[in-house]
Amino acid sequence: ENSKFAKALKAEFPIFHAYPDLIYTDNGATTQKPARVLVAEQDFYTRSCANVHRAIYTLGEEATSRYEEARKTIAEFIGAKPEECIFTRGTTEAINLLAHSFGETLSAGDEIILTEMEHHANIVPWQQLASRRGIKLRYIPIYDDGILNLDILPQLLNRRTKLIAVTMISNVLGTRNHVEHIIAQAHSAGVPVLLDAAQAIPVEPINVKELDADFVAFSGHKMYGPFGIGLLYGTRKWLEALPPFMGGGDMISEVGLEGFTPNEVPYKFEAGTPPIAQAVGMAEAARWLSSIGHQAAGNYESELGQLLIDEISLIPGLRILGAQPGFPLGPRAGIVSVTLEGVHAHDLAAYLNRHKITVRAGHHCAHPLAQRLGVVSSARFSFGAYNTREEVFTIAEILQKAHKELL
Ligand code: PMP
């Protein structure tokens, strides 16, 4: 039944018309784009193309209103107010923005808590900040089954803790972290929380107010939207208190030779010409996700992940990262990373590619996690709403063959 739904969805994606045999399982890196999103972006360029915010003429007003409509759509999509939504180039830029802006408020000896399973995008900006300002980073460790050891959190939190920055879903393990618990603990200590929702936004409806998150970052291109667009959500209270990151046009209300007055939120954080058409495309992707049943799609992808794990767990020499034989899996997205003993992950990926199966092989931009798990590289299957159970069975078959042919 569910796979029928996926097949119908597939028809909405031009890329699967171009490559009908493609088994696209690299959705953690980026999702494919439904025609609706491409059309929305093209329609902006075709009928509304002008720069935003500075125009008095009709076309410019039209561009501005479409851009601001897009902001409103994304705001509604995550239960936020438009002025709390800053368009960025993606998750990476959103986190860098915060590291710079929030970083300005910190001083030597202050502490930030991360986890051992973060993507480099949620490690390196904090390390850069740490070396700029003498800040200490602490890490929530993981258990061998890929779950955060949250019992440690009270020991890590102290008077110097200024922020917890944590991923909602690991891009390598698929683990859905108990961020609700982390936020409650952090807030009881008066500490704000940044959620890296890059992997979560395509698979679960996020309501930032219900979550009570202070900051949330995600990318358009991982939620069936365009490249070059993402979002930083921040509560109005925080955004008003923080200094701007980049300087330039649009982020000021007044400029003199001696200085400037920042614009109001969110414009204060959007220097220069923003990714206008991409914002329009991202808003369309949000509408599309809501229209297909956002939570149902995420649940379905988790089931595909579980099915793959069930199908391949007996292959000799195959290790599923973050899954311990005999232990039930915690809440997980449809992301499965594997290693095959004696076979380099790149060779496995190339073998799979010959069978039109696309996987990412490497450290998945999470070196510390790879080190913690004791692997150099792994091959990652990450499912999208259009993947089918048949595809999972094909992948399992090919992995069986890979074990025999590659060793
Ligand atoms: N965080 C996580 C958990 C991710 O999976 C990714 C993308 N792989 C990023 C951050 C970075 O996203 P982007 O490259 O779109 O900025």
Automatic annotation (TrEMBL):
Q: What keywords were assigned to this record? A: Pyridoxal phosphate, Transferase
Q: Which reaction does it catalyse?
A: (sulfur carrier)-H + L-cysteine = (sulfur carrier)-SH + L-alanine
Supply the Pfam families for this chain.
Aminotran_5 (PF00266)
Q: Which cofactor does it need?
A: pyridoxal 5'-phosphate
* Annotated GO MF terms: cysteine desulfurase activity; pyridoxal phosphate binding
Protein's name in the database = Probable cysteine desulfurase
- Keyword Lipoprotein listed? The answer is no
Superkingdom field: Bacteria
Function (record text):
Catalyzes the removal of elemental sulfur and selenium atoms from L-cysteine, L-cystine, L-selenocysteine, and L-selenocystine to produce L-alanine.
Matching entries from SUPFAM superfamilies are given as:
PLP-dependent transferases
Q: Where is the Aminotransferase class V domain?
A: 23-392
